[in-house]
User: What shape does this take?
Amino acid sequence: MTAKAKRPPNWLQAIRSALFNLAMYVASALICIVLLPLLLGPMRWGQLAGVIWSGSILFLLKLICGLDHRVVGREHLPAGACIVAPKHHSTWETMAIYTLVERRVAVLKRELTWIPLFGWYLLRAGSISIDRKAGPKALREMLKQARDRAENHAARIVIFPEGTRTAVGVSAPYHPGIAALYSHLGLPVVPVALNSGVFWGRRTFIKWPGTITVEFLEPIPPGLKRDVFMALLRERLETATARLVSEATAPK
Assistant: This one.
């Protein structure tokens, strides 16, 4: 899709988006039922279920809405445990992360694990669920679980620094959780820039055709002071994301 491509009528893309939503829910339910035996296995079986689900949903998104993606810089991911810090524009990256990063363990809000069947897979995949209302207790529990996943499973801990989706062009405060993980685990942090919000905006229904770009950036080494780390993370992530957004080829 080129920058001069003509955007489909709103009504047509709205129909496509509605069909995708329906297909996504039906496919998710079927996958959760068919893969039930994987819940009886180790953590890697739960992660395999995540890959199958994510790949299926991304296939449906491309097929129905014409929204694809490409990945650059994956060589920046260390072979062992690390922290992965993606920009958070859209629902898209919460679904795609299971195919984008191998051995990933996501930090997510506890309520997601309450979803029937689906929540069981999140837990079996080793996800770190936190009660955002618990304050310091939630932070301590997150760090405890993250250390276990990193040391015993060589996991890549995925956490969105902003904690929630932000609109394209908006720079929200970075939450202290990412700094706590960085200091506590002593692992490199890989920032991940993307432009998903150009095609599937924050709290929007329509998914526009095009190609989302995901870029894994150079890792930030462990051992920096907290304020230096946070400033460097923000500078790299926001700069690269702004570049990807400016280069996006969404239809006009």
